[in-house]
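Quick log. Single chain, no ligands specified.
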Amino acid sequence: MLGKILSTEMDAVSFRTKVLSRHLQSPSFLQSLIQSSTCLNYSPPDHSESFFFDTHEMRKLMDGHHLEHRDMVYKLIIESQLFMPKNRGGKVFVLPDYNQSMEQQREMTMKRIQYLVGHGYLTRNGAFDGFLTAKGPKNELRSFSLADCYGVFDHSLGIKLGVHFFLWGGAILNLGTKRHHDKWLRDTETYKVYGCFAMTELGHGSNVRGIETLTRYDASTGEFVINTPCESAQKYWIGGAANHATHAVVFSQLEIDGKNQGVHAFIAQIRDANGDICPKVRIADCGHKIGLNGVDNGRIWFDNLRIPRENLLNSVADVSQDGQYLSSIKDPDQRFAAFMAPLVFGRVTISSSAVYSAKIGLAIATRYSLTRKAFSLTPNGPEVLLLDYPSHQRRLLPLIAQTYAMSFAGNYLKRLYVTRTPASYKTIHVVSSAFKATLTWHNMRTLQECREAIGGQGLKTENRIGQLKSEYDVQSTFEGDNKVLMQQVSKALLSEFVSAKKKKRPLKGLGLEHMNKPCPVVPSKLTSSALRSIDFQVDILCLRERDLLNRFSAEVSQYQAQGVSTEQAFTLTYQIAEDLGKAFADLAILRTFLEAEEAESASQLKDILSLVRSMYVTTTLEEDSAFLRYGYLSTDNAAEVRKEVTKLCSELRPHALALVKSFGIPDAFLSPIAFDWVEANSWSSVQN
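-> predicted structure:
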């Protein structure tokens, strides 16, 4: 019985299949299917969005300097592809190295450096030619700009170049004297030596003063003897050490006749010309990382390695042939600060590269949101672009405004550094610490939001954003843990504040001059026009910094009055110290925005910059709970701020594409979903 039922049903299925087959093959049916198709029909955003200002002029303002050199590097990378040709959807994209082992990524990074050296792009009027051997702001600014570009292409490449030129080379330039410059700098620029920067240890990272590597002077031979006395003293996370570096700047405690003179820097050879590890040196690999695997981070042990006396970098302190310790800087604290100078190089480049990473993520996510549609607002109505939803505008447009502000901050930091004088070192340290923390935190938050804003496409490595998150995560901790840096900022502000009070003089420096003026007053009821006023924006951020500095000083003093040490008092007041560090950074960033805005003469650009600035400030007011916690804003005014952010989103929405296009990131450095993402995922693309 069951067999008959199955046979009857099979016959019926066969009959229906034949009827449906004839129906599908008829021309009239195919034509009706085409006419009634509901498949997506769209064009790239460039063809549907209007531009209301000159994006090239805006890009000049954003990049700040050396546009021609930047475009030269972009062109080089796109044309050469630097060994990574990829094709998606009819466009050529410079895509990251993925599906490669750690060893392959390291080899690729080194090949790229060798290619750039061989073709003169790092020397002979290339990116870093003259950076070390011909001092001057123009050479340094050019090198910073090109470091930005190499990092946009490949973060590992940018870091390898930065370690070699800015850390190794910068240490020799700033901590060494003529004998070191003559011997090492030209060979560094031409890559005859490969340098690394051996500061961090297994047991000490941010607390450099506590490092345990020990160097003693042997007057009988005129040599220094570098030793790793315990496992926690091994040099750790040293970029370039695992495979390629031939030399290292080694930071170590210096002991003379049994007396510890503090941290000093030495040049040590760790590999010979054949790449073999030198005697008395041991090197091991740090292993696979969550990102940045194109950089060969290694660990170094020194087994009483002897180096010539001349290998002490002696611009700050020296040791005579007979073993006398010599330094014109008698204060150990000031000497230590001088030895930390090379770290500023790193913080400047990290701050800038973090902003360019955020630009890539926002350019991709914004362009995608201008073509990707979802749901409809009426029954049977057309689907709506993602960026036309207020909630999606809230995700991306405030981040775009913050990225503009931080781009101006990064440019300011570079100018501050290249025009440095001994009198400005403290300011550079404080500003670079605040900006490095703020800009890298912003980058990671931006990339996460962009990843979510593009949905499942964000999980594909070729769409870059997820990969950028892994590559740039390290920036929150290297060259100084961000939390520690912010506390250093607050301590420096407090020191300036206390010193001025003791000497009964006005505050000068570190942007604290506003403390000498009457305290700003916030209107009892905020309006849209007030929130967009430059005077209000400056006043509210000044008020927060001013009040927090007074509170921080009072709390530290209260603990000291109870017999608590200064360092312990700082430890106990860490929360308000972090609030103060953020307040300092936000105000400093706003000032750089205003400086850039005032320098612009085109009315169209000034109008859009005014909107972007207002978005930056109102978002800052909305996001920092300190404004409510300490009463700078009432709950009613905080509600007005929130409404204003939404209003600014709707006003900036028509400019979204123009704003991200002004970032100046070439199309090839974005990803398939920033353009024709349907074609990029079509069957023809799979076949090709």
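The CA atoms of residues 579 and 625 lie 10 Å apart.
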